[in-house]
Amino acid sequence: MRDFFRFMFSPIIAILDFLTKYFKTIVFLTIMYFIVFDANDSTMNNMQTANLQKIELSGPIMDSTKVLEQVNQAKEDNNIKGVLFVVNSPGGAVAPSVEIAYAIKELKELKPVVAYASGVMASGSYYASIWANKIIANPGSMVGSIGVIFQGANVEELMQKIGVKTQTVKIGKYKEAGTPTRAWENFEKAELEKVIDDTYDMFITDVSSARGLKKANHKEFADAHIFTARQAKAVKLVDEVATLSFAQDELIKISKVSTPIWKKQDKFDKFIDKVINQAVTNFSIRFMDGLKAY
Question: Boundaries of each Peptidase S49 domain copy (predicted)?
Fold first, then answer.
């Protein structure tokens, strides 16, 4: 019987043994694959210089660094005649959303930008897109949720159960506003509401200016309403309801490019970005509290 099981599982054992012995070699060859094949792609790209670039914004917005790098590259590259800004994000932190929005605004002054809602373009990610020359939404996408939220947990009862007490030394009446260690006092809530109100006012002011809407009518297009693509078009948050190919064609048209050649991202960088973005997304969903344009 022992020989029978050894015979049955010997192929699996052999494979595991091979992976154990040659793991580093496999990793090395994988990296070399990305380098060599990307080098071939780069050679082909050099023969035909790219004139259009796609920039993606996906997942919760917790940091703007990567998107800003790509926007700046597009600004500085005179060969790039237009940018397709593809968005699939529920929003996120206010500051990076605003950073991206104004970077897109500056880019638009130099070359056309078409924003495309591939899945979700909500709150902070909609903010990031408002200054594009055109906003096009996938027919099945969700758009809007123009609002601001500040939230945090109250772990006071949990701390009491496990015997943990906080010690605080502070100067300033509002220094503990938003603390998770107890229920918020009314004056603390009022202070946080002032922050929320001013941030929301900034949001709807910029949306109104960018989209040619009347700020006084913000209850119609903002107020955290969630719209389908068609509903978003009806309230003028988007210009067209169409597919990605239409958005690409629209960019080609307004960029006045006769032979469109799209810039390709380095394969290894794309792989690393995907891993990092997933890690950031998982972390932010589980642990990040505070002020968000969600």
Answer: 106-256
Note the pLDDT tens digit of each residue in 115-141.
Answer: 999 999 999 999 999 999 999 999 999
| 123 labelled catalytic | yes
Q: What is the pLDDT of residues 192-235, one digit of tens each?
A: 999 999 999 999 999 999 999 999 999 999 999 999 999 999 99
Whose CA is closest to 143, among 269, 262, 1, 241? 241
If residue 217 lies in a helix (H) or strand (E), which one and from where to where?
Answer: none
Integer angstrom CA distances of residue 98 from 37, 72, 128: 37, 16, 6
The domain 48-293 is placed in CATH, from the list 3.40.50.11440, 3.90.226.10, 1.10.101.10, 3.30.70.890, at 3.90.226.10
Catalytic residue among 10, 42, 175, 209: 175
CB 205 within 8 A of CB 179: no
C-alpha–C-alpha distance, residues 141 and 84, integer Å: 17
State pTM to two decimals.
Answer: 0.76
Query: Using an 8 Å Cβ cutoff, are 16 and 9 in contact?
Result: no
From 123, 125, 141, 208, the catalytic residue: 123
**Bridge partners, 52 (sequence order):** 82, 262
Domain ranges of the chain: 1-47, 48-293
The closest of 150, 257, 146 to 210, measured between CA atoms, is 146
Number of neighbours of residue 22 by Cβ within 10 angstroms: 12
Q: Which residues pair with 142 in a beta bridge?
A: 120, 228
| Residue spans of alpha helices (H) in 149-292 | 156-162, 186-211, 218-221, 229-234, 244-255, 267-287
